[in-house]
Amino acid sequence: RWTATDEAGNTSTCETLLSVREPEAPVITCPSDLSVSADPGICGAVLTLGITATDNCTGIPNISSNPASGSVFPNGTTLVFASATDESYNLNSCSFYVTVTPHPEICNGIDDDCDGWTDEDVTDETTFYLDADYDGYGNPNQTTTGFGCYPPWGYTLNALDCDDSNYYINPGMGEYCNGIDDNCDGNIDEG
User: Fold this and answer.
1) Where would you tag: which of 58, 135, 153, 178 has the fewest CB atoms within 10 A of its CB?
2) 46 neighbors 70 (Cβ within 8 angstroms)
3) Burial of 125 by CB count in 10 Å (0-12 exposed, 13-18 middle, 19+ buried)?
4) Could you say which DSSP state residue 132 is in?
5) Phi and psi based region of residue 186 (left: phi greater than 0; alpha: psi -120 to 50; beta: remaining)
6) pLDDT tens digits, residue range 7-55?
7) Which long-range contacts (CB under 8 A, 24 or more apart) does 141-150 make?
8) Is the alpha carbon torsion for 36, 38, 40, 45 positive or negative?
9) Which conformational region is residue 164 in: left (phi greater than 0), alpha (psi within -120 to 50 degrees), or beta?
10) Residue 171's closest CA among 137, 140, 127?
11) What's the confidence (pLDDT) of residue 118?
12) Cβ–Cβ under 8 Å, residues 60 and 115
């Protein structure tokens, strides 16, 4: 506010509105390209991104990214675009890649590598268990090995049978009052 007074005592006042705009953009720092393995149970990885920014005048600039930090990054390579904006609306940006490697396929009836196929591409040697009573549960003491996920005839992928000579004794059965561990839980006639 300005006031001027002449010799006669007359005064005049005026106001000037000054707007100071800081022209320097914030400094933003993106991490180097990231390579991570997929998280268990999902077709991607949840990542917290280490993006930082500073400004010469104001406080910490507003940082945003697409995809956002904390979101699920899908299997494959994703370009991340990040920006920092200060209180004067100056903007600076950076970018980097995130590569998520899917889980290898294993013999478990699940699409581990998220390609729409189940238990394919398995080349590791697999242990199979004799299922002499054909109840779907194998004998832990009688095994064979092979490659891939599909057991030879008369074998299965699990070793859960406690009596492989009786179709009606396995972990999928109910327990009956008959003096036998019908459900292979180590207890007789419980329940």
Assistant:
1) 153
2) yes
3) exposed
4) T
5) left
6) 888 888 888 776 667 788 999 999 999 999 999 888 999 999 999 999 9
7) 147/122, 147/123, 148/107, 148/119, 148/122, 148/123, 149/107, 149/119, 149/122, 150/119
8) positive
9) alpha
10) 137
11) 87
12) no
Handedness of CA 138, 142, 147, 151 (dihedral sign): negative
The secondary structure of residue 68, as a DSSP letter, is P
Rounded to 10 degrees, the C-alpha dihedral 139/142/144/145 comes to 60
- Dig out the tokens for 24 from the structure: 């320097």
DSSP letter at 160 equals: -
Quote the pTM value: 0.61
**Over the range 45-61, which residues count as b (16 or more CB within 10 Å of their CB) and which as e?**
bebebebebebeeeeeb
Q: What is the pLDDT of residue 44?
A: 95
- Report the number of secondary-structure helices (H) and strands (E) in the chain: 0, 13
Closest by alpha carbon to 24, among 87, 68, 70, 113? 87
